[in-house]
Specification:
The protein is built from 3 helices and 7 strands; from the N terminus they run αβββββββαα. By secondary structure, the chain is of the alpha+beta class. It has one domain: predicted glycosyltransferase like domains (Thrombin, subunit H). It is globular and about 45 Å long.
Amino acid sequence: MTYSINKQERRRSQRIPQSVPVFVRHSLYSGNLRTTEVSNHGCVIHAIRPFPRGTELRLEVLPSHSTTTAHVVHSNPVGSGMRLTTWTVALELDQPGNIWMVEPPPPDWWPKTSEQKRSRERPPLDSNRDINKESRS
């Protein structure tokens, strides 16, 4: 799947086409569904009904037996009129992560540890200065 540059820049992590079985729970609905796309920050599922924006859903990712919560970003109908039987539902994970067990994950899925963030903020050490200090001791 190819995205335009502007759309790609808005994404926090790359979406990839991936069919993953998930069990979705909500107070008014529960059932087995499949993802059509996954990312480190969410997924797209096909459902037989729409969910209002902001609705919290509990997801059990069946291959990994991981459970997480996600919020609905949007629900869009697939088809129209009497043939309307499916909704494309975009979900944002409450806790980003590779719960989909994608191997290997895209490079932008790797979590940035606090040490990696700090190393970018620190100026490089002057190695000669450190050697001189050690030789004086």
